[in-house]
Amino acid sequence: MERTRIIQVLKSETHGHGVLIKGWVRTRRDSRDVIFLEVNDGSCLDNIQVIIGEEMMKRPDLAQVSTGASVAVRGTLVESPAKGQKYEIRAGEVEVYGLADPESYPLQKKKHSFEFLREISHLRPRTNTFGAVFRIRNAMAMAIHSFFQEKGFLYVHTPIITASDCEGAGEMFNVTMLDLEKMKITGGKADFAEDFFGKKTSLTVSGQLEGELLALSLGDIYTFGPTFRAENSNTSRHLSEFWMVEPEMAFAVLDDDIRLAEEFIKRIFSLCLEKCGDDMAFFDSRIQPGIIKNLESIIRQDFEVVTYTEAVGILEKSGSAFEFPVGWGLDLQSEHERYLTENHFERPVFVIDYPREIKAFYMKLNDDEKTVRAMDLLVPGVGEIIGGSEREDRYDVLLRRMKDSGLDPDEYWWYLDSRRYGSAPHAGFGLGFERAIQYVTGMQNIRDVIPFPRTPRNAAF
User: Fold this and answer.
1) Do 162 and 54 reside in the same domain of the chain?
2) Which of 69, 107, 253, 402 is most buried, by the most CB atoms less than 10 A from its CB?
3) Residue 275: enclosing H or E segment and its boundaries?
4) Which range of residues forms the domain containing residue 230?
5) Dihedral (CA of 373, 379, 380, 381) sign
6) Across 52-61, 106-115, 264-273, which has the greatest mean pLDDT?
């Protein structure tokens, strides 16, 4: 008999047929002549109740089954007389795969703090909250792929190990085979010519630059993979390893980028609500009341577009006592972004045309020579969720911008070649996958939307 997932059982409209369920015991309750097991296989929030009759109660292995044990149950699906459940399984056969010591198993039936659960990230997916998080993570990943595939974008893979710094911030993890301990003892200096790749290399902070090269050869592409930032920010919004979605459109300008970003965010939110209704209802009731209404509001609203200069003017005239100063040339902080979306426009907002000094070298310079064709999508409750731009496609301007940013053009000869040979307008954006999941679920800490978080001084599991 083929294994049946619990979510399939709960959606079934017929009973009386045989099923095979494999999962983990959430609770056990014994009466005089029957054992009640609540089993969950990770496919949904709900458990299935298993009724084990008197004929099996004396089995030594079943006597040891407790919360956390893994079992296979073969039996008959019957209507349940108990309140709150449609069906239960009358067990005909029970196989015990693995026991869990009730004295040491940390996930007993009680409330656990998220801080504690981070310490046992290897077990926390068995809880309701984290099972729901990771099912939504899966649904959003599939939504991202389906969105771009349906639009004809090509899914490409860009390097994880790189010799270039896309953002120019220098916050990169070095990758080396050099004997650092020996150098520390002898006082020697690193000779990267002797290293594995023959030069200094790091983990990528973005696949964008390589993505641009592929877009300028293949048309519209997208990347979706891990990126790394050696930024010592131990906050609820920062990870050292996280996933990025980065589409790049050939023969596109900033307006095309804005249209794609709005359609994209509405689509993945819609598919998440459609595919994960029960899990989203859980987050709406247990984590952040109103989260479903908020997502539905974003999906049906038209987004606002405002220039950075206009946004600064709005903030300066707001009369609000912001913690961080507001002024032309200063980057917008989360409190500023939230004021724009929640208080002023009361909807998502694209802020465009930022000062060149606070944006990356690859963003296209406007005719005023002061601003670049950048765009950030701000949403209520969080602030920035997407950042993008039209890329600088003029060789001479890009070369000048690199030098102004302190980058060595010789290190980016390959990137400059894309502007020397058949350059074309192109644009793209980046979405931090974990921040999007945070927004959809209402989870307050970004460490709780990735299975095994990597943060400063933490690389467990």
Assistant:
1) no
2) 69
3) helix 254-275
4) 124-169+205-448
5) negative
6) 264-273
Strand partners, 278: none
Residues 156, 387: Cα–Cα separation, whole Å: 20
Q: Output the CA–CA distances (angstroms, integers) from residue 194 to 67, 161, 446, in the order listed.
A: 54, 17, 38
pLDDT attached to residue 188: 78
Q: Are strands 154-155 and 221-228 parallel, antiparallel or unpaired?
A: parallel
- Asked if residue 147 belongs to a domain, the reply is yes
CA 175 to chain centre: 24
For residue 249, is pLDDT > 90? yes
Q: What is the number of domains present in the chain?
A: 2
Whether the Cβ atoms of residue 150 and residue 193 lie closer than 8 Å to each other: no
Question: What whole-number distance in Å separates Cα of residue 303 and Cα of residue 55?
Answer: 64
Return the HEC string of 300-341.
Answer: HCCCEEEEHHHHHHHHHCCCCCCCCCCCCCCCCCHHHHHHHH
Are 157 and 65 within one domain? no
Q: Is the pLDDT of residue 166 over 90?
A: no
Report d(CA 352, CA 361) in Å as an integer.
16
Q: What's the whole-number mean pLDDT along residues 148-167?
A: 93
CA distance 223 to 20: 39
